[in-house]
Please model this.
Amino acid sequence: MSCGALEWGSLLEAPHATPVSPRRTPGAFHRPGPHQQEGPITAVYEGAVQDLIDELGRLPGIGPKSAQRVAFHILEADAEDMKRLAEAITTVKEKVKFCEICFNVSEDATCRICQDTRRDQTVICVVEESKDVMAIERTRSFRGRYHVLGGAISPIAGIGPDQLHIRELLNRLSDETITEIVIATDPNLEGEATATYLVRMLKPLGITLTRLASGLPVGGDLEYADDVTLGRAFEGRRALS
Model:
């Protein structure tokens, strides 16, 4: 047995041996541990490239590395494709607004759902965001109308009832043809707080209040639920006492 093997064997057998830390060379790459957050990418690019990365990084769900990948995809993509993308972004900001009745996104004063006389005029489904309307529409389980709150009650984020379209909902309920309100806020802490507040405000009006049935993932967002699960939750909605 070599001297090196004997030395290592003695080290492994020693009852109180101190582990030897691997030597790091200056500037060696260090991978963040499981409880460490990856820091932002240092601004190493010049001018327009770095400006694009910074702006993309401000979008929800896009971190520093994703912003960098998207930026370089834009640089390498066909110029006409990127021109159409830029025009689509500009157009949506210029043309799209919120429906005067339900606050869903619309290019007209009122959205196509509110304009559709074939929809059930007696039922209103209350959701947090316009993307929730799209999620429910995909299930083809609801033929009533909607009311978009524009968010959910969140004291941490500084959002209270006054920041949501709750007053406008109450104004809509002056129409005596409405017999049911479906509360379809997200099944998370903020969504449940919003639902509880709505029940307290709407219960004295004598209108039937319902909530989506169990089956949706707790803590999730309505928009991420698959169509079948969301459709079943809608069809099995329960009355709130």
User: Anything to note?
Assistant: The domain at 43-95 is CATH 1.10.8.420 (Helicase, Ruva Protein; domain 3). Residues 2-38 have pLDDT under 50 and may be disordered. The radius of gyration is 27 Å. The chain has nine helices and seven strands.
